[in-house]
Design brief:
Blueprint: H1 7-16, E1 20-23, E2 43-48, H2 54-63, E3 64-65, E4 68-69, E5 75-77, E6 82-85, E7 96-97, H3 99-107, E8 127-128, E9 133-138, H4 150-167, E10 174-176, H5 192-203, H6 248-252, H7 258-269, H8 285-298, H9 311-317
Parallel strand pairs: 1-6, 2-9, 2-10, 5-9
Antiparallel strand pairs: 3-4, 5-6, 7-8
Helix pairs in contact: 1-4, 1-9, 4-5, 7-8
Length: about 325
Amino acid sequence: MATPLTADRLLAALHAEGVTVVEHPGWRTHHRNHKGAWGPVNGVMIHHTVSSGSAASVALCRDGYAALPGPLCHGVIDKAGTVHLVSAGRANHAGGGDPAVLRRVTAEDYGDRPPAPRAHDGSTGAVDGNARFYGFECVNLGNGRDPWPTAQLDAIERASAAICRAHGWSARSVIGHSEWSAAKIDPRGFTMPSMRTRVTTRLAAPAKPPTKPTKPTQPSKPTQPAKPSNPTAPTSPTTPRYQPFPGASFFTARPSSPVITAMGRRLAAEGCGTYAVGPGPRWTEADRRSYAAWQRKLGFRGSEADGWPGRTSWNALKVPYTAKVP
């Protein structure tokens, strides 16, 4: 049981897990909070849309329809593996479900599957799942024949792991709609136990972005001998777009580095700078106060907003690459 992530912290968690995200206009304030509680949250719920096409599916999940107003989830995961964010609050996705399932998901003490649900939306004793679960709608017809591309399954895994990692949950906090409500069948086409296995494996390692596949080397034509290699020629490594997280010890050593200047400029651009002069290359108390303001903007509180950079908040800041850190 946990307090829902703020919009900024949800976005930071997804980015840190390597999720490709599209933010749709107004998603931070598009919700159903006026109709009921949003939180405390207990897990992540996976659905299929029974639709095709990214644009049409996103529009449906954002706006809903007469009988079920939107938003119908927090994010739509399309077949290309992109997560389209449409809400950061209460959404009409889960409906009523089994309180016994909620207890086991909260305790994370079930085996391969949570107990089979006996309740559904409108049944006696059903629990309001819209208050308790993040929801991801995945673009699929749900007929058992529509394929689930590798990129889409990877995005479901990463998005689920991102939220679990942010809350300190295990993969047992990730369930399908059919595991919550006796009246539902989604998602259809892959099994939730297999997805929980994938999420478990991902959570066992630090969060990292996906590795882009390397293009295969084209063989030389037989009539053209290969040029001799030049062992003295310098190599040209690819320069990263953003500064990788240099580790907590980099900052506690109070370094003097262009990385600190670049960080300070980004903090100022985000409205978190507390600099009287600067920012400059030497780590100072002004840097720590500014970074604490950034952590609070992301939704961190208490000891998690102490001003010392961590990987999740650093990746969300997107500091331009300036130098290799020793």
